[in-house]
Amino acid sequence: MSPEAAEPTDRGVVVDSLGVGLATGAYGISFGAIGTASGLTLAQTCVLSLLMFSGASQFAFAGVVASGGNPVTGGVTAVLLGSRNMFYGLGMAPRLRVHGWRRLLAAHVVIDESTAMGVARESDRHARIGFYVTGTSIFVLWNLMTFVGALAGNALGDPRTYGLDAAVGAAFLALLWPRLTAWPQRIVAAIGALVAIGAVPLTPAGAPIIIGGAIAVAAGLWLTRGESDAEITDALEHPADQHHHDRPHSRDDTRDERGGS
Amino acid sequence: MTGSSAVWWGVIGASLACYGLKLAGLSVPDRVLEHPMTVRVANLIPVGLLGALIAVQVFATGQALALDARVVGLGVAVLLLVARAPFLVVVGAAALTAALVRLL
What we know:
heterodimer, A: 261 residues, mainly alpha, 14 helices, 0% strand, B: 104 residues, two-stranded antiparallel ribbon, flat
């Protein structure tokens, strides 16, 4: 349990975030093409990317309109899928600590990728950099590519040809990797993955992520139930945030030997 | 065009509701955030969330499960992570692998 050893630099976090931003933002072209193919106007397709800015919700809205459903049904489906962003906000709020107009702006870029690139960081500073750089770069590119896709249709091809879909999965795994050093974390990640896979055929797109995540968090709370609040808070606090002196945190080693559960 | 204006109402209404949910999540008061239970939950969220995100990103195509080039890309990512390769090398190699598998 020594994540400090692999603590990245600010520049490293920016580069990583831009990488995810480019890989994800490129999908805007798919949404642009699908939006207009679904019968939405070019303006409606672009406004969805500007105002809704939540991929799964946007695809759901276009899908319902394409299948002849009414816009109210499409809207309700989109909002249900967007509800996971509320939980992402809960995860990001302690790291961002934003108020006033900054919060109004930050809220708009609370999405899957920005949250994933933010919450996984050790220090609050890196959490903020990861969240804002990822969120902003995706917002800019997603909207640009939506416009291009809506104009050009499917002529420009599928981002999957370039393996961009596999890139996003690999990026999330690379973020998760340093956290898989202890058993409770490994089990929580595995439960999240398995429950999400099980939910894919049964629920609308986007829902498996929040279902898998929620059940995994509940399981994690149960697995660590024996540990006192003080122990857990101490173990989870980020070294960079503490007014700590220059003494090493060797207590972590003894805690690992006793086991987490 | 009543049909088009109905779609506009759907677009604007659903967009505002989606934004409202994002804002609500960020607006939970500090005393709730500092509660030990919130700390535990907030620190478990990334692990459970990333596990679910990876699974959906790699195995789902819409509402169907699929084993395709993405799985090979993820396998290459695992090997590189074990070898302690840098982040962008892992991500780039996974994309390249998936693109090559699709070319074959």
